[in-house]
């Protein structure tokens, strides 16, 4: 159990509590909040400082003893050390659980942890970690000084000097503190069992968190203690888990020390902690840093206080998604703390803050902020000389660059242009149609935009129990015409059909029209000439006031004080005056009903101005004979006479038999009245029997109103005074047909009065009833806007992105890099949605979003690798560099870096598309909804890795939508300019007018277009000449190529392709190069030592193409074959099929080694031995299950391979393979056994890919891998757990 220091804080203060109180000036100084240590000037302040140090030291030692090894001494004086220590992460989880309700205690704190892997440094200590504490816990745990961010670092962020205080007695008997550290350190090591030959805190860090290193980032600065951590050191851990534990320990310590600070009110020293917000990551350790004061110096010291980055798209006139014309601009806000001279007080302390201009990347914005900061300090003349200024600013710049490495950019929420467009003299009106989606149609994509047949949906009015002639048509008014006809989105509505049932409701754009200001004025005159717009009003202002009532007063509509016109006008005017950023400007309006059941008004939308005017001006109407029961139920009603300000909703009582001539009270109810009320009624009605008093008599005697139509039935209604808003809604959706005449016990009345009794009975006099103009169905739908409008906004965004991607596809087709390929919107939209939707694993629904996103990301990673390799191959036609493989490796590693993809994403404004699938709908708001209730602008934090992963997800989505590759190439050309290019020195960089992709074809459905690349034509001709100069080599390769074709022909039906390998000269040359595996060491054919190197270099290039092709083909196959697979499943399957051992095994097992040029290579004989040995081991396991690895044996195998389209594979043959390893070998084989053969396998695949394309090469080689593919990831884990380390490493959901 975690023990807080507050329980022991008074241990060192008892003897000093009787000292004389400080003077008034000292007391004032003690209460003054300072951020630097106040230099004590009296013995009393010295004593307070000493007591504080004792309290802090005791608290720290007590805290540490929970985690460090404990030294104990038994009766034989033998010292033992208990090395068992509690896990800080487990303790933090336990502490979190104690603060949460029972239903929330199963949530993990793992999402709090964030990591930085410093792989760019040549050091084995690469890991740092930081924790972002949820905002709700910062206040609960009183973490007021850190902003909720805690970093890994030197243990507790303190030095041993805080531990080197041990209470001893002076000669005069007074207590004093000893700070030399000798006795204190011995005492600390005795109680913890650590050795005293090192700093005990450093040893403790090693014990708790594993190996670590303090990395120097700049020359060491002067410090108050030689062993304390300075700003110039950076703690990094060897293991990721060690960094996790360190960050958790620092947070636990901060919680404990904050308790001490909150209880100890006499503290006069406040320590400054790095002020880092949740949106800023810092690479510096989380440590308590006293202000560094230069004793006796006159210079002013500057310390970096805060660095934050903000991103936003500066919208152009013609907004376009995924375009370099709309990059995300970055702004840097940096502040420094100006510490006063000598640190004697904080009167001169100040925080200087500067803000950069908007820039295309974070680095430029940081440098801009730095130069602004430097100019500001020069203007203020804060330093005595130029050298001092230079030294100070260099340190500031270094710290800024260090923090910026892991800083998260906070983005302003981006909304579609149609939602934020200003409404001027012309605007657009769109009708929204709502329908309940039947179960058979729930799988329909919500953004498809296609019409749904009537058999698959039910109108909203039917479920709301409102007749079609009484149902309200809903429209929205916006400032642009971007919304497309047929646009639709699905959302959930609980209770729309049943009380607790969640049904899917579809909202769709069914009609659209353009309206001008003059058109609106004309419509108002035509609809109701009686409408007189007051001073300052206009149709737009009327619409804004109407929306103000709907969203701010809807729940209390008809009850309480009503806002007057001037108040509403002022409120909506203030909405226009306040800067709302990305606020939604569109408004909801009721539309004119369809006339007489026809669609006369449905083709062109018309606003029901009369309803809007009456709502804004609170004009009610009386019930007339023409009012239908359905229309009456769709309104709020009131009866001021007899019921005051109560608001009712009408029941669906069709056969109400009571009239004003009916008895006011039934006999049963009259008998239940209290005696006092009975007597009062008898007196009023001159002794009449209570059960004989009629409604007409009651209103005439009590309210002095004579009913004019006593023959009309009463109106069955229910009061809203005791109903929740959800119950209001429920009353409209379900017909109330109970017996209205049934007496109700007066015990249910809140007060014993006739008015309350009649209210409970719910029968109103028709001629006294007033109808409020606002339709209930319209109000309830608008109140659900936070559920459906974000979905509709998202759908429109996805349509715009799909349109953009199709345009990029056409650019590729126009260049001739791929044949025309039709892309369906139905296929593209859900893919783009999954690619740009992020979620959390905290709940099942959001976990599905994570899985879909990660699946596309994994596929996109393979697609990106393939096109990078193909682009390099196109550019690397001629090279004499023997290190061709190194060139490919360098280019792939540079262009595929997360940082490069992040910068590319910024340049196309990709963050605008990222959708938080688990975000609360409460983030949506209307501009005319009170700003104090809902935030106008929502900041979205997206880590750089999330943006780079989204780039890969979109690449995966484009490949699935258009497997010709033209859409993918179009997208890559958008981000390609941010990829570093290593070929600009030799003139082979592609034309900027063409784009990043230099190849003339995608090599997906067709082979590589060598004839379109003149340099490659020349290169292949030179290699053919080399072949001709070595007839022995050429004849051997010709013979082996024929054997290779025969092997493929036995397992495929693509005989035309086999024939082309025989007749096409380029195909023959590529296969010859792929099979030429000679090492060229002491080659008897190579007289000049250079010509055959050309063939080897071509083979190296083919190898890279084959590696990327094979990975893309296998990952694509897994994606389609296992739609429920997670990222961990992908990694396991890919590793099991593409490991060096697996490829070498497949290569030998199918006899491909016999057609290589060097059949006498040592690798072949070594691998054959391993294959034979593994088959013997695996064969025994297969025998147990009837001829295969899983129960069902051969029969189950046949069933699976036939299901996946291969009828030629009669028996499984890879009995020696075990999830990427060989049976009997849990880890990979020695390099000399498998490396050369797997290299040859990829070379063969690469040659075929360059001849026919990716699709055809997989058709040829898929039969050789199908046996492994039909084993699911879970079956691989089950069968080979403990047999293969890959099955153990790649668990489900783990990469």
Automatic annotation (TrEMBL):
Pfam family, one: Ribonuclease_3
PROSITE patterns found in the cross-reference section: RNASE_3_2
Top-level taxon in the UniProt lineage: Eukaryota
Biased composition regions of type Basic and acidic residues, renumbered to the chain: 46-56, 169-181
Single GO term (MF): hydrolase activity
Disordered, as annotated region: 1-56, 169-194
Keywords, in A-Z order: Hydrolase
Transmembrane segments: none
Biased composition (Polar residues): 1-14, 185-194
Limits of the RNase III domain: 831-963, 1051-1156
Biased composition (Low complexity): 15-25
Keyword Hydrolase on entry: yes
InterPro entries linked to this entry: RNase_III_dom (IPR000999), RNase_III_sf (IPR036389)
PANTHER family: DICER-RELATED, ENDORIBONUCLEASE DICER
Name under which the protein is recorded: RNase III domain-containing protein
Source taxonomy: Eukaryota, Sar, Stramenopiles, Ochrophyta, Bacillariophyta
């Amino acid at each position: 159990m975690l023990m807080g220091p507050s329980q022991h804080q008074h241990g060192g203060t008892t003897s000093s509590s009787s000292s004389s109180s400080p003077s008034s000036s000292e007391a004032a100084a003690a209460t003054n909040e300072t951020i630097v240590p106040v230099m004590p000037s009296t013995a009393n302040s010295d004593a307070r400082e000493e007591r504080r140090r004792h309290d802090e030291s005791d608290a720290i030692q007590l805290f540490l003893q929970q985690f460090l090894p404990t030294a104990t001494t038994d009766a034989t004086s033998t010292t033992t050390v208990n090395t068992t220590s509690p896990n800080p992460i487990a303790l933090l989880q336990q502490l979190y659980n104690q603060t949460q309700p029972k239903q929330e205690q199963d949530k993990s704190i793992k999402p709090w942890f964030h990591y930085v892997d410093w792989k760019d440094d040549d050091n084995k200590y690469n890991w740092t970690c930081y924790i972002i504490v949820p905002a709700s816990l910062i206040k609960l745990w009183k973490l007021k000084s850190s902003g909720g961010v805690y970093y890994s670092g030197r243990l507790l962020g303190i030095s041993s000097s805080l531990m080197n205080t041990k209470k001893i007695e002076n000669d005069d008997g007074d207590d004093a503190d000893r700070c030399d550290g000798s006795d204190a350190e011995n005492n600390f090591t005795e109680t913890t069992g650590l050795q005293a030959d090192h700093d005990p805190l450093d040893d403790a860090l090693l014990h708790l968190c594993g190996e670590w290193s303090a990395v120097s980032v700049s020359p060491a600065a002067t410090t108050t203690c030689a062993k304390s951590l300075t700003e110039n050191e950076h703690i990094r851990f060897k293991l990721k888990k060690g960094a996790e534990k360190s960050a958790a320990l620092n947070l636990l310590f901060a919680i404990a020390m904050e308790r001490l600070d909150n209880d100890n009110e006499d503290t006069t020293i406040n320590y400054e902690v790095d002020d880092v917000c949740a949106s800023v990551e810092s690479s510096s350790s989380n440590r308590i840093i006293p202000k560094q004061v230069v004793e006796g110096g006159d210079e002013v010291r500057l310390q970096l206080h805060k660095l934050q980055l903000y991103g936003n798209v500066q919208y152009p006139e013609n907004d376009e998604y995924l375009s370099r014309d709309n990059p995300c601009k970055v702004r840097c806000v940096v502040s420094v703390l100006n510490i006063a001279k000598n640190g004697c007080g904080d009167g001169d302390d100040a925080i200087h803050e500067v803000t950069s201009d908007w820039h295309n990347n974070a680095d430029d914005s940081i440098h801009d902020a730095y130069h602004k900061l430097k100019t500001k300090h020069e203007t203020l003349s804060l330093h005595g000389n130029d050298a001092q200024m230079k030294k100070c600013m260099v340190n500031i710049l270094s710290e800024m660059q260090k923090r910026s490495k892991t800083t998260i950019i906070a983005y302003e929420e981006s909304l579609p242009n149609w939602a934020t467009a200003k409404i001027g003299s012309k605007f657009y009106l769109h009708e929204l149609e709502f329908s309940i989606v039947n179960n058979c149609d729930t799988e329909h994509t919500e953004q498809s935009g296609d019409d749904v047949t009537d058999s698959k949906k039910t109108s909203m009015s039917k479920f709301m129990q409102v007749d079609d002639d009484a149902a309200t048509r809903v429209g929205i008014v916006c400032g642009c015409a971007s919304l497309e006809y047929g646009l639709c989105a699905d959302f959930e509505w609980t209770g729309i059909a049943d009380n607790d049932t969640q049904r899917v409701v579809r909202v769709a754009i069914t009609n659209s029209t353009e309206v001008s200001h003059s058109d609106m004025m004309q419509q108002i005159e035509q609809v109701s000439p009686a409408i007189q717009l007051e001073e300052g009003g206009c149709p737009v202002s009327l619409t804004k006031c109407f929306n103000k009532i709907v969203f701010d007063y809807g729940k209390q509509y008809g009850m309480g004080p009503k806002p007057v016109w001037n108040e509403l006008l002022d409120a909506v005017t203030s909405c226009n005056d306040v800067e709302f950023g990305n606020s939604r400007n569109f408004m909801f309006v009721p539309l004119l009903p369809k006339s007489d059941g026809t669609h006369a008004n449905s083709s062109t939308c018309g606003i029901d101005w009369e309803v809007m005017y009456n709502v804004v001006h609170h004009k009610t109407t009386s019930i007339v004979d023409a009012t239908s029961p359905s229309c009456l139920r769709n309104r709020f009603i009131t009866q001021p006479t007899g019921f005051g300000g109560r608001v009712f909703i009408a029941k669906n009582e069709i056969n109400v038999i009571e009239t004003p001539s009916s008895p006011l009270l039934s006999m049963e109810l009259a008998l239940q009245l209290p005696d006092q009320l009975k007597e009062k009624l008898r007196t009023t009605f001159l002794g009449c029997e209570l059960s004989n008093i009629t409604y007409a008599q009651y209103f005439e005697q009590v309210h002095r109103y004579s009913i004019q139509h006593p023959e009309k039935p009463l109106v069955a209604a229910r009061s809203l005074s005791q109903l929740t808003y959800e119950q209001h809604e429920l009353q409209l959706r379900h017909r109330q047909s109970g017996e209205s005449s049934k007496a109700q016990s007066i015990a249910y009345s809140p007060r014993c009065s006739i008015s309350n009794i009649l209210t409970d009975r719910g029968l109103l006099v028709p001629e006294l009833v007033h109808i409020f103009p606002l339709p209930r169905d319209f109000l309830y739908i608008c109140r659900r806007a936070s559920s459906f409008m974000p979905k509709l906004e998202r759908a429109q965004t996805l349509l715009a992105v799909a349109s953009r991607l199709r345009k990029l596809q056409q650019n590729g087709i126009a260049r001739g890099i791929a044949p025309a390929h039709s892309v369906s919107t139905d296929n593209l939209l859900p893919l783009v949605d999954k690619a740009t939707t992020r979620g959390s694993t905290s709940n099942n629904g959001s976990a599905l979003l994570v899985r879909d996103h990660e699946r596309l990301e994994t596929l996109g990673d393979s697609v990106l690798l393939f096109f990078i390799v193909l682009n390099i191959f196109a550019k690397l036609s001629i090279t004499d560099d023997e290190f061709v493989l190194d060139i490919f490796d360098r280019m792939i590693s540079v262009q595929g870096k997360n940082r490069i993809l992040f910068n590319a994403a910024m340049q196309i404004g990709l963050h605008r598309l990222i959708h938080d699938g688990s975000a609360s709908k409460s983030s949506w708001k209307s501009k005319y909804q009170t700003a104090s209730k809902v935030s106008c602008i929502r900041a979205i934090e997206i880590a750089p890795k999330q943006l780079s992963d989204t780039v890969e997800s979109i690449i995966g989505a484009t490949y699935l939508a258009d497997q010709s590759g033209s859409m993918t190439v179009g997208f890559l050309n958008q981000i390609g300019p941010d990829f570093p290019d290593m070929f600009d020195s030799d003139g082979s960089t592609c034309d900027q007018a063409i784009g990043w992709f230099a190849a003339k074809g995608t090599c997906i459905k067709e082979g590589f277009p060598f004839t379109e690349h003149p340099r490659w034509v020349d290169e292949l001709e030179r290699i053919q000449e080399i072949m001709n100069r070595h007839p022995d080599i050429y004849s051997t390769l010709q013979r082996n190529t024929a054997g290779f074709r025969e092997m493929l022909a036995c397992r495929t039906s693509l005989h035309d392709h086999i024939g082309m390998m025989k007749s096409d000269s380029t195909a023959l040359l590529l296969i010859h190069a792929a099979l030429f595996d000679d090492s060229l060491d002491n080659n008897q054919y190579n007289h000049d030592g250079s010509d055959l190197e050309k063939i080897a270099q071509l083979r190296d290039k083919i190898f890279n193409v084959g590696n990327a092709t094979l990975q893309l083909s296998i990952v694509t196959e897994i994606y389609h074959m296992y739609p429920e697979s997670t990222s961990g499943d992908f990694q396991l399957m890919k590793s099991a099929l593409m490991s060096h051992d697996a490829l070498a095994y497949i290569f030998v097992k199918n006899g491909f080694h016999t057609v290589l040029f060097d059949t006498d290579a040592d690798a072949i004989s070594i691998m054959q031995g391993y294959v034979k040995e593994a088959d013997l081991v695996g064969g025994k396991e297969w025998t147990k299950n009837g001829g295969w690895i899983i129960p069902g044996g051969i029969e189950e195998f046949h069933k699976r391979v036939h299901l996946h389209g291969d009828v030629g594979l009669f028996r499984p043959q890879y009995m020696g393979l075990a999830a990427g390893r060989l049976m009997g070998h849990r880890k990979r084989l020695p390099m000399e056994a498998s490396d050369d053969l797997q290299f040859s396998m990829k070379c063969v695949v690469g040659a075929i890919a360059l001849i026919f394309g990716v699709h055809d090469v997989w058709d040829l080689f898929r039969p050789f891998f199908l046996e492994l593919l039909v084993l699911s990831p879970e079956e691989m884990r089950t069968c080979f757990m403990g047999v293969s380390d890959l099955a153990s490493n790649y668990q489900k959901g783990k990469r």
